[in-house]
Amino acid sequence: MNISFRRAEWADLPAIVALLADDVLGQQREDSSSPTNPCYVDAFKAILADANQLQAVAILNNEVIGTLQLTFIPGLARKGAWRGQIEAVRIAAAHRGTGAGQQMFEWAIGECKARGCDLVQLTTDKTRPDAHRFYERLGFVGSHIGYKLAL
Hints:
- It is a single chain.
- The protein is of the alpha+beta class.
- 36% of the residues lie in helices and 26% in strands.
- The chain has helices at residues 13-21, 24-29, 38-49, 77-80, 100-114, 129-137; strands at 4-7, 53-60, 63-73, 82-91, 117-122.
- The protein has a five-stranded mixed sheet, sandwiched between helices.
- The termini are far apart.
């Protein structure tokens, strides 16, 4: 597959939201109605304005088939190491299991290396065992327990 990866643009926003909503968890917490909910517009403005944020899309045949958000985090721990945080990973249902996700992660890890990150990290919902196996195949290790507090 000839997939390309790039920073998301305004025209990609409806497709990104649709991808986020296209799974069991996303159906419960996302709003893929048209026009695009203003909360997504505001969030995308903030992402575009922040040099340490990168909303990325995977493109195949001029169609958005995947997305993820990279956050570059400076820190004092690990001798001032930068971290790449990968979140909100989605591949369109028709392209799951085709290698598109692996290509997207290889691209994202390359972006983290290019930014000087010493570590790439992510969180994943406990109810996603297929995702856990995928991340482990890519070399990620479930070394920590993550906690969230909804506000």
